[in-house]
Amino acid sequence: MFKFEYMLNTNIDKSIKTIDTRSSILHKNYEAIHENGFHATRTDKVISELGITKGAFYHYFPDKNSLGYAIIDEILYPNFIGLWLSLEHYNGNPIDGIISCVNKSISFTTESTVGFGCPLNNLIQEMSSSDKGFKERLERIVDKQHSIIKEAIQKGIKQKQINKNANADELASFVIASLEGSFALAKVKNNIEYLKNSINQLNIFLKQFKI
Question: Which domains, from first to last, does the chain contain?
Fold first, then answer.
């Protein structure tokens, strides 16, 4: 989820090449921001490495913030929400579905990338308090995640698969907070075992709600 592959093919017609150029700018800057943070990322350096002119950059993105917004809307949102959408059609116990999504979310992190942290959490910490555009977009992702998880828990309670005393709203918040907190802890420790151990405890906690 944290690293996305794309291809720049020069043997294509102009309209597709235009889309590809924009996509290249978007994805390479996403990678740079994930590794270095938004403020520390030099977009001019990134596009120079791509062989793209500043003029081409500003054709697609009038300023750096616009680029950041596009990264959230077009990369982070579909990937972070897409991860949880399987819960909407999960046939088993929703707790098992949530655990599956949690485990999948950390499966993309390796020992060499754990020190970069979670790109969603990174931007929340760095940008949500200083820029309204970032805050609204990042909050939209968190709210949608929360809604999907909450509805899955409510469905499980109704179908007598989850303990009726479970608070769906609070438990959904706890899942997100625990997951993102685990990424943050593993980031500062630069050790993937901290991530795995924290998530293991989250999963053990969640299983207590199963009937």
Answer: 14-62 (1.10.10.60), 68-207 (1.10.357.10)
